[in-house]
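Researcher: Let's do a round of design. I'm pasting the structure tokens now; please hold your answer until I've finished.
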């Protein structure tokens, strides 16, 4: 039997299923039942954007749930010397590699990097993606961000949220009977409103998998991004040295998330554990999809 949410199967609620599992495990993370599990769809603007929450997704995969990563663009502008079809093919392969780290599908759509717009055509692409995958939760950036493609992604997913339930919109792809839950991933922007997480997840046990995902994106983490910030000469030579350099830089960011939301970690994990968590990822519930209760949300994030 598939682990389902209350809006998918009237006779079983997520609370009831999770309560049984928690009684059986003594409060341990809830694993998916054989042949089932939650379905998590992560939508970003560029190949490597979905990796931002690779730690939490790694934890879901380890519990037997299904994760799919999607980049709405092919990444064909994100490099200082490469571009076009050649770069798009490189970044598609890098994304596939990152997905393999977790054992998850990771796809890129053929929209141009740097040119993503919240158009009706792309909205239809997003509606089809969501309907075909039938996710329990969809993860995406908020609509306010430094990069126009990130802003467009947040708007596209937000605009698709209700429309996935409307039969005569993208009519050839069967509609969903109810919205999934839409989840925003952490950002640092304060306007119009600061990021306010409902859930912060300890990812310390899977942090090396997250580093390995980013390590797949050679064109970005060792070439374009260092070049863009004026630090290309800082990147060491050799596979092992590069990964160690990357891990040091990126772990500092994920350590900052844990420190930034320390109070929420303590609230969720308790004082003893929450005060010691080193690496974390944070999530805010969007108001544009189904709205779970606090209890339901805690069961959909079965890590506490």
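Researcher: That's everything. Go ahead.
Model: Designed sequence:
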């Amino acid at each position: 039997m598939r682990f389902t949410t209350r809006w998918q199967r009237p006779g079983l609620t997520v609370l009831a299923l999770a309560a049984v599992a928690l009684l059986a495990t003594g409060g341990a993370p809830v694993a998916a039942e054989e042949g089932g599990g939650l379905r998590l769809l992560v939508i970003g603007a560029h190949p490597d954007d979905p990796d931002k929450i690779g730690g939490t997704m790694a934890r879901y995969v380890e519990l037997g749930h299904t994760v799919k990563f999607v980049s709405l663009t092919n990444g064909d502008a994100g490099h200082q010397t490469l571009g076009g079809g050649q770069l798009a093919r490189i970044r598609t392969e890098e994304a596939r590699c990152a997905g393999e780290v977790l054992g998850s599908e990771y796809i890129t759509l053929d929209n141009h990097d740097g040119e993503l717009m919240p158009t009706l055509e792309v909205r239809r692409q997003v509606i089809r993606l969501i309907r075909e995958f039938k996710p329990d939760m969809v993860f995406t950036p908020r609509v306010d961000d430094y990069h126009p493609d990130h802003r467009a992604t947040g708007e596209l997913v937000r605009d698709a949220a209700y429309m996935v339930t409307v039969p005569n919109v993208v009519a050839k792809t069967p509609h969903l009977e109810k919205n999934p839950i839409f989840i925003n991933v952490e950002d640092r922007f304060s306007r119009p409103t600061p990021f306010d997480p409902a859930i912060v997840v300890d990812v310390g046990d899977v942090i090396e998998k997250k580093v390995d995902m980013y390590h797949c994106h050679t064109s970005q983490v060792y070439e374009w991004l260092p070049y863009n910030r004026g630090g290309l000469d800082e990147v060491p030579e050799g596979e092992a040295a590069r990964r160690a350099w990357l891990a040091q830089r990126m772990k500092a960011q994920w350590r900052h998330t844990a420190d930034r939301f320390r109070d929420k970690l303590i609230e969720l994990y308790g004082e003893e554990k929450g005060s010691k968590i080193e690496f974390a990822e944070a999530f805010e519930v969007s108001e544009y999809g189904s709205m779970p209760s606090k209890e339901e949300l805690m069961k959909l994030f079965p890590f506490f």
